[in-house]
């Protein structure tokens, strides 16, 4: 679609490395860089820094984007719900202890 307005994304996060660009043609795509407000980090980005939860350059953006969606979609009501929502993120490259 040329010059078409993007369709707002009201969907759960997807793995960009597993998604063909053609599948999201015409849709709004929000990346880790797009959630900040200029030089001001998104509160979830700041929380990851404040709580020293940074991981590798591949895992951290996925974790932040998924955590942001989890809160936005109302799934952050209990540890169990958060754990379940976040369970699709790969943490294999990190040295942090799983809880």
TrEMBL record:
Q: [2Fe-2S]-binding domain: from which residue to which, for each copy?
A: 31-94
Protein name (Swiss-Prot/TrEMBL)? Aerobic-type carbon monoxide dehydrogenase small subunit (CoxS/CutS family)
User: Which Pfam family, giving just one, matches this sequence?
Assistant: Fer2_2
Among PANTHER family, the record links this protein to: OXIDOREDUCTASE WITH IRON-SULFUR SUBUNIT, OXIDOREDUCTASE, IRON-SULPHUR BINDING SUBUNIT-RELATED-RELATED
Give the residue range of the signal peptide.
none
Q: Name one GO molecular function term.
A: 2 iron, 2 sulfur cluster binding
Domain of life, per UniProt, equals Bacteria
What InterPro entries does the entry give? 2Fe-2S-bd, 2Fe-2S-bd_dom_sf, Aldehyde_Oxdr_Iron-Sulfur
């Amino acid at each position: 679609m040329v010059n078409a307005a993007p369709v707002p994304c009201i969907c759960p996060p997807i793995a960009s490395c597993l998604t063909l660009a053609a599948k999201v043609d015409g849709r709004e795509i929000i990346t880790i860089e797009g959630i900040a407000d200029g030089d001001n980090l998104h509160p979830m980005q700041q929380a990851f820094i404040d709580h020293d939860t940074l991981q590798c350059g591949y895992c951290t953006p996925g974790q932040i984007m998924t955590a942001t969606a989890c809160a936005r979609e109302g799934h952050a009501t209990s540890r169990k719900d958060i754990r379940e929502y976040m369970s699709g993120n790969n943490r294999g490259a990190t040295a942090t202890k799983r809880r």
